Amino acid sequence: MKTPCPESRQPGIRGGVTLDIFGTKDDDEDWWAKWEANFDEPPTKPEAKREESAEEWEARMEAQLSAYVDPDENLSLSQEARRAISFRSDWESFWSPEYGAFEDTTRIPPMRFTFKKAPWDAMHENALQIFSAKVTATRGGLPFDVFGMVAVRDTIDHNRNIVFCRTRDNCQTLTEEHPYLVLTGPTRVVLLESPPPVFIEVDLTVKGTTDFEDEKLSSLVVPISSSSTMYSHMWKCAYTSKLSTIEFTLGHIVSAVEATISVRVTHGSWPDGFRSQFSAVTSGVHGRTSNPVYHTSVNDEEFILLNSGGEKVPVTGDGDIKLSRCVVSVDTTGLLKVHIKAWGGDNNVMETWKVFKPLDAGISNSMLDIGFCKMDVTVAWSLILYKQVYANTRL
User: What torsion do the CA atoms of 287, 291, 292, 296 make, to the nearest 10 degrees?
Assistant: First the structure.
């Protein structure tokens, strides 16, 4: 049977009893009216997927806890520990196919665009500064030996950006006088765009006499977000478990570039018995508003690069001082100050510093003289690229 083509039917003529290509009689006025009405409505677009806000993520985690954790196990796990388990299951479902294994660390290096030309979309971005992580005991008291990991995850690659990492045979002893973790990261700038949030992941254990006597100190995953702001500012957030409270001092750095700092002894040497603290202080425009969030300025907060404590300052054979961490986010509306303090047994403090103006690329150098030695301070600058890096992305 030959099917008539649509052009064979003249518009407005419904005569005869032949079937058209829709299998409907040409003179069925009601059917044609419904069919033509379909074209009066604009086509619907599928709803675009978007990243979750911190509040939405927390609500979904609570709803999914029972699906991820054995109900009998819930009785012995804190809410934060259960949420951490949920986060891992959720991460492996959503992100593992594109970003690799849950334990993978970020492959993105610092100084990404220090010496090579940055792409057009690399720019000044909002960044998260992690100033410190303080641990206080809620049961048992200090001192104790702690090992484990603290990491952050942003949306560039969703992988771990290690901030603290110690094995069981290399614990840090926390005391009432020194309750701060010795941070060793981040290894690159942490992008802070909300939504979606940055996640801080904590897995810390108190070392016992034997492996069987080790006790979980803190196991949590928390979303960190910061509302849009014109000014860099700082805040504190604390999370309590059965054994401890961990308090983070964080900074939202606006219009940021990444600075990677290195220090080398060029004349003289660092004497035995002298302790030291190397730090970076960033400044920015301080908002004069009634909003209290702007009154906690980052301008005087020290970002510790190295605190030798009672130990010898680590210096390589080439004179490089082995800083605990070296990547700092700097507000381009302000300045970066590298500050060095040294003191001996008499606690007589010697100090020197240098102020650097932020750049988009390249390096800044300066010589610092602290009396017993001279040091060359180098700052490598880089713009930030907010573009996804997948497990198979070539860097």
Answer: -20
Give the mean model confidence (pLDDT) for residues 50-70: 52
CA–CA gap between residue 246 and residue 178 (Å, rounded): 14
Angstrom distance (rounded) from CA 360 to CA 111: 11
User: How far is it, in rounded angstroms, from Cα 46 to Cα 311?
Assistant: 61
Q: Residue 8's pLDDT band (boundaries 50, 70, 90)?
A: very low
Q: Is 368 helix (H, G, I), strand (E, B) or coil?
A: strand
The answer to which of 244-253, 295-304, 320-329, 354-363 has the lowest mean pLDDT is 295-304
Strand partners, 203: 149, 219
Find out whether 238 and 218 touch, Cβ atoms under 8 Å: no
Based on the number of CB atoms within 10 Å of its own CB, is 336 exposed (0-12), middle (13-18) or buried (19 or more)?
buried
CA–CA dist 81, 377 (Å, integer): 42
Q: Is the pTM of this model over 0.85?
A: no
pLDDT for 69 equals: 42
> How much is the pLDDT for 388?
94
Q: Are 224 and 200 in contact (CB under 8 A)?
A: yes
Nearest C-alpha neighbor of 164 from the set 147, 144, 143: 147
Give the pLDDT band of residue 162 (cuts 50, 70, 90).
very high
Integer Cα distance of 118 and 125 in angstroms = 14
Cis peptide before 4 (omega within 30 of 0): no
Task: Determine the Cα–Cα distance for residues 391 and 395; give it in Å rounded to an integer.
Answer: 10
- Kindly state the tokens that stand for 80: 């934060």
Per the CB < 8 A criterion, the answer to whether 389 and 157 are in contact is yes
Strand partners, 384: 123
* Calpha distance 57→54 (Å, rounded): 5
Q: For 218-264, write each residue's pLDDT tens digit.
A: 999 999 987 777 889 899 999 987 788 999 999 999 999 999 999 99
Nearest in space to 127 (alpha carbons), one of 246, 282, 302, 278: 282
Interval 112-123: pLDDT, tens = 999 999 999 999
Residues 244-247: contacts with CB within 8 Å, 24+ apart? 244/135, 244/136, 244/137, 244/138, 244/139, 244/204, 244/217, 244/218, 245/135, 245/136, 245/138, 246/133, 246/134, 246/135, 246/202, 246/204, 246/218, 246/220, 247/133, 247/134, 247/135, 247/136
